[in-house]
Amino acid sequence: MGRVLGIDYGERRVGLALSDPMKIIAFPFKTLSHTTAENLISEFKIIIIEKDIDSIVIGLPIGLKGKDTIQTKKVRHFASSIVELCIPIQLEDERFSTKSAKRSLNLQKIKTGHDKAAVDRTAAAILLQQYLDKQYELIHYLFEQQNLKDY
To answer: What's the pLDDT band for 129 if we cut at 50, 70, 90?
Structure first.
């Protein structure tokens, strides 16, 4: 059973999170310094093999009114640039994930002012957990529907 890799893409840093093998819980993993697309893809290839990744979820920063922003377009371009990894890629609305990450770290008494990498990793975990929760709810719903048909 493979894991899901969560990506919080930024122009300077890329926060990463991993799911557990059962795809129930997301954990902050690491933060990569953004260099070139080729370097990121090389890093992803290593992570995919080492961590047994079978799918990727990328945070999509949709505007508050539900419209694409400049950053949304950059993330969509990034997502299209990593299709060569040949594993499924999903986009997940990440509105407020960075604010939630900062709040979560502050509650843990972790200062976020100088450790932006921790914020990026945590934001990746939050958006990945949101995605995993939706998948669980969908599977649970489909299972219930199947059981109702059996009666």
So the answer is: very high
Distance (Å, rounded) from C-alpha 93 to C-alpha 125? 13
Q: Check if the beta carbon of residue 90 is closer than 8 Å to that of residue 131.
A: yes
pTM of the model: 0.82
Which amino acid would we find at residue 46?
I
Q: What is the dihedral of CA 77, 44, 13, 62, to 10 degrees?
A: 40
Q: Structure tokens of 104?
A: 């979560």
Among all chains, which residue has been given the structure tokens 């509105």?
A: 95
Tokens of 14: 């890329």
pLDDT score of 5 more than 70: yes
Q: From CA 71, how far away is CA 93, in angstroms rounded?
A: 13
Query: Distance (Å, rounded) from C-alpha 83 to C-alpha 120?
Result: 22
How far is the CA of 85 from the CAs of 9, 24, 53, 80, 121, in angstroms? 16, 23, 11, 10, 21
The Cα–Cα gap between 44 and 46 comes to: 5
Query: Contact at 8 Å (CB) between 75 and 69?
Result: no
